[in-house]
Amino acid sequence: MGYELLVGLRYLRARRRNRFISINSLVSMIGIAVGVWALIVVLSVMNGFQKEVRTRILGVASHVQISGADNRLADWQEIAKVAAQQPHVLATAPFVQAQAMLSNGQEVRGAIVRGIIPAEEEKVADLGSHMRMGKLEALKPGEFGLVLGADLARGLRVLPSDKVALIAPQGLVTPAGVIPRLKQFTVVGIFEAGIADADSALALVNLQDAQTLYQLGDDVTGVRLKLDDLFVAQRVARDLLQELPPDTYATDWTRTHANFFRAVAIEKRMMFIILALIVLVAAINIISTLVVAVKDKQSDIAILRTLGAQPRSVMGIFIVQGMLMGVIGTLIGVVLGVITALNIDVIVPAIETVLGFKFLDKGVYLIPELPSDLQSADVISISLMALALSFAATLYPSWSAARLNPAEALRYE
């Protein structure tokens, strides 16, 4: 590719005779650079959103959850020991989970009550770091303390030390009929995890108090597991099913939140396809540039052919010219995209300051800042896609140049 590369470089540069080709080449490179830049930044932001939301969800939910039939697990200590022996399992914690109504004066809210052992729960979840008032350690057995999500506490209009009536759906059968069980709890803390389902509907109590309230004795609803790698949760759950009793179930976070993460994956894939159209338009522009270049250089091609150049060499000249546009545009786009993605936390606030408004309102959106998670796999796939489209765009013009008849081209010269 010695002289083919040299001639392709010369054709790419500006010429006095026809600057249209060089301007078109510049526009093609800019189009590819902008497309690659946009793709890297958008996919990095979407990765950041996915990572941030996943972290918040798993701060409340568990990596793997073991439960029994009818939501009762009798020999949970032995099951926890079996689970702890599995590779990748860092910690286990029992829990009781049931529904209830919370009442404070005229305010009534439905809630999911989760009974926990605070010291054990800290090992499998990050709720302690989300406490806004009080501490999880305040949930002591027999004192009937209650930790509420921020939105739930706001709806009930309560603060720490306030009293809340908890009404369990399981009633007491008396001669007068079924009477719902009611117990007064004291609010000892408020957390805000940033997840609507938890902040607006989750109430934490001590495990022993929950067992007493729901008449479970020593049974629990299940055991929660924390893993050293959340992406092996499916395999760990599958392995546990082979060792647990037949009436015991193991589910992982990818199943309990499957719809959300599947929607994010589909959205990311569609954004890739939509933004790739920018690169496709630039690639089509390469076709038009090379077609004009072939028409303009007919006499040069004919002279090369008469000097002994093979058709594949002529084809190589225009492939080089088109690929140089693609390579230069891709490199510029990758550099701009990586720099932008790595500094999105500085660039976006600066733009918001200049424009005078926030892109993500904290009162509307779950995450008020644009997160970014640059992944090398995305950068590589975007670069390869841009180069592949650029190469495909060179094939037809190069093929037509290779088929040029020297006699026809030089007839009117």
How is this structure best described in words?
With 413 residues, the protein is of the alpha+beta class. The chain has two domains: 2-55 and 260-409, no CATH class; 62-255, no CATH class. Helix content is 55%, strand content 20%. The chain has helices at 2-12, 19-60, 76-84, 118-124, 150-156, 196-201, 207-213, 233-243, 253-256, 258-296, 298-306, 311-342, 344-355, 376-402, 406-409, and strands spanning 64-68, 89-104, 107-116, 131-134, 145-149, 163-174, 177-191, 202-206, 222-227, 248-252. The chain has a six-stranded mixed beta barrel with strand order 2-3-8-5-7-6, surrounded by four helices. β6 (163-174) and β7 form a beta hairpin. The longest helix is centred in the N-terminal third of the chain and has 42 residues, at 19-60. It starts with a helix and ends with a helix.
Looking at the structure, what is the overall shape?
A: elongated
- Measured by DSSP, the beta-strand proportion falls in 15-25%
Helix count equals 15
Q: How would you sum up the major sheet?
A: 6 strands, mixed, barrel
Q: What does the radius of gyration come to?
A: 32 Å
Number of strands: 10
Residue share in helices?
Answer: 40-55%
The parts where pLDDT drops under 50 for at least 5 residues are: none
Number of domains: 2
What's the order of the H and E elements? HHEHEEHEEHEEHEHEHEHHHHHHH
- In the sheet with the most strands, the strands line up as 2-3-8-5-7-6
Structural class: alpha+beta
User: What does the average pLDDT come to?
Assistant: 80
Distance between the termini: 29 Å
